[in-house]
């Protein structure tokens, strides 16, 4: 792989001005990207600084420096396959009982079956995306210190605004390091303070946990981040609180210490921040979810626009890949389906009546016509229930900006991906209470879970246990990128609970305990001798 990042600072979410190829190797985690526009010029202008910040956000959504493809940010894999959201979603979902992706591209089947190794290109792509974004955030943070702003004549309100941008970059970096903790355990580590040109040291899972915890708590207590709900799709204090809740809820897995009380502390902050559940569950996943009542439930989205964030990962993948056979593409607001994604019986069985029940409105996205409800064949799109959760149509039935209905290509959706939302926080609060955390109550936990269920017409619980929370999280949050983490936290990912083709057999089987972590890619260990390999690989 190429050993050097090359960046051109560009324009807004699409980064239309980004035209230079960038490599993926994280050996360069602490190096300064090269700019065709001089950094001293760019970082003297608050307007251009905001454009660089926009690219930090866009890196989760787009795959390269011009849309929809042609100048990918990382190499070694098809650009669309390598998109951050797409690769993260696949590692979190098709490794579980919630989804299957039947294509035979490269080593993708081994991700479906939990049989990957340290040379798997789909695992490597997400690893590279994580550390690539960290490197970009490091450079932004490095260039926006108070000293740098003063040197460049930025003061007053402009300096205050850039400090907010800098805090957001730190939060985005913390989010990426959390992804590294959750997926890979430890990994290479660098901040803006690292010496340029050195090889990053390895930090253990516990060490990365401590760094992310410290960063998020500092961002919570110091000036910088916007207040909750200040501006849609910005990383504000509620995003930091939600991430802390997730970090602490999984602390038993990450560090061996129960931090349920801390999870409740930060969940309470989110619950008091004024977010409300959207009255209609399906509106959360439509092309105008940034404009309807869904907006007030979504704490942090990855924002997409059919005209200005074009690519073949992200929501393009999540909208197109489940469509085919009897699903009419026009009903989804697209020009055609990719016939890849389905779900497994383990998920549909969690609902009353399976995939065809009517007592829970969340089931309305299950499409059964002409489908074998079982997953009898990994590669057959007819094998498994289809899911139409994400659509490129609005709450009024109108196609998105790039739909054929609007005169567009029908390729690229407007639908935002709800990475964090209120219902998730309510369920985390309840789980933390049931895990013995202080600062909450059983009565409030039950009320919050039942509020989530009531929206979809599900029968209220009279009591709740931890097993109920795991199942409710599947019903509420399926296909939103949480399931692998949830199953690991509940001790059900590798052994004692199986699903179709887990371990490579039709009925499913237990797999090695080491599968709770992905391997550090061999491509990075070759160039960074500081990196050990995770056990079992």
From TrEMBL:
Keywords noted in UniProt: Cell outer membrane, Membrane, Signal
Gene Ontology CC annotations of this record: cell outer membrane
Annotated signal sequence range: 1-22
Primary location class: membrane
CDD domains hit by this protein: SusD
Organism domain of life: Bacteria
InterPro entries cross-referenced by the UniProt entry: SusD_RagB_dom, TPR-like_helical_dom_sf
Protein name stated in the entry: RagB/SusD domain-containing protein
Organism, as annotated: Hymenobacter lapidarius
């Amino acid at each position: 792989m190429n050993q050097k990042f090359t960046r051109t600072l560009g324009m807004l979410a699409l980064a239309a001005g980004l035209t230079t190829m960038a490599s993926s190797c994280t050996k360069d985690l602490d190096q300064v990207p090269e700019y065709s526009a001089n950094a001293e010029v760019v970082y003297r202008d608050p307007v251009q600084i905001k454009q660089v910040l926009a690219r930090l956000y866009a890196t989760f959504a787009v795959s390269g420096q011009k849309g929809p493809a042609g100048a990918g940010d990382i190499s070694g894999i098809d650009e669309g396959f390598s998109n951050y959201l797409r690769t993260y979603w696949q590692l979190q979902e098709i490794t579980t009982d919630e989804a299957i992706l039947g294509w035979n591209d490269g080593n993708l089947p081994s991700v479906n079956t939990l049989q990957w190794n340290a040379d798997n290109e789909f695992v490597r792509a997400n690893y590279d995306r994580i550390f690539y974004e960290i490197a970009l955030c490091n450079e932004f943070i490095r260039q926006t210190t108070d000293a740098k702003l003063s040197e460049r004549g930025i003061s007053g309100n402009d300096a205050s605004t850039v400090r907010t941008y800098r805090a957001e970059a730190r939060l985005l970096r913390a989010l990426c390091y959390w992804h590294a903790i959750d997926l890979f355990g430890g990994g290479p580590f660098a901040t803006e303070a690292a010496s340029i040109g050195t090889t990053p040291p390895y930090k253990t899972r516990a060490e990365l946990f401590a760094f992310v915890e410290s960063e998020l708590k500092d961002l919570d207590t110091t000036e910088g981040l916007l207040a909750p709900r200040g501006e849609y799709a910005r990383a504000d204090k509620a995003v930091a609180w939600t991430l802390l809740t997730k970090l602490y809820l999984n602390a038993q897995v990450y560090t061996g210490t129960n931090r349920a009380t801390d999870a409740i502390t930060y969940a309470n902050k989110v619950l008091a921040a004024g977010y409300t559940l959207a009255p209609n569950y399906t509106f959360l996943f439509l092309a105008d979810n940034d404009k309807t009542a869904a907006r007030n439930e979504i704490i942090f989205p990855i924002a997409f626009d059919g005209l200005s964030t074009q690519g073949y990962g992200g929501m393009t993948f999540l909208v197109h890949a489940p469509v085919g056979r009897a699903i009419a593409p026009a009903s989804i607001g697209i020009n055609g389906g990719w016939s890849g994604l389905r779900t497994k019986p383990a998920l549909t069985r969690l609902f009353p009546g399976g995939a065809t029940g009517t007592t829970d409105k969340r089931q309305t996205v299950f499409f059964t016509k002409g489908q074998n409800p079982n997953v009898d064949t990994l590669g057959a799109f007819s094998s498994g229930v289809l899911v139409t959760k994400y659509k490129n149509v609005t709450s009024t039935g109108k196609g998105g900006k790039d739909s054929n209905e609007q005169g567009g290509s029908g390729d690229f959706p407007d639908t935002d991906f709800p990475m964090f939302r209120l219902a998730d926080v309510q369920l985390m609060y309840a789980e933390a209470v049931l895990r013995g955390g202080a600062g909450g109550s059983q009565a409030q936990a039950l009320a919050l879970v039942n509020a989530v269920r009531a929206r979809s017409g599900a029968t209220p619980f009279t009591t709740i246990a931890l097993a109920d929370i795991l199942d409710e999280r599947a019903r509420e949050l399926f296909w939103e990128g949480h399931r692998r983490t949830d199953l690991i936290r509940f001790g059900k990912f590798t052994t004692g609970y199986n699903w179709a083709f887990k371990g490579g057999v039709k009925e499913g089987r237990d797999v090695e305990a080491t599968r709770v972590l992905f391997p550090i890619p061999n491509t990075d260990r070759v160039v960074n001798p500081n990196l050990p390999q995770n056990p079992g690989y």
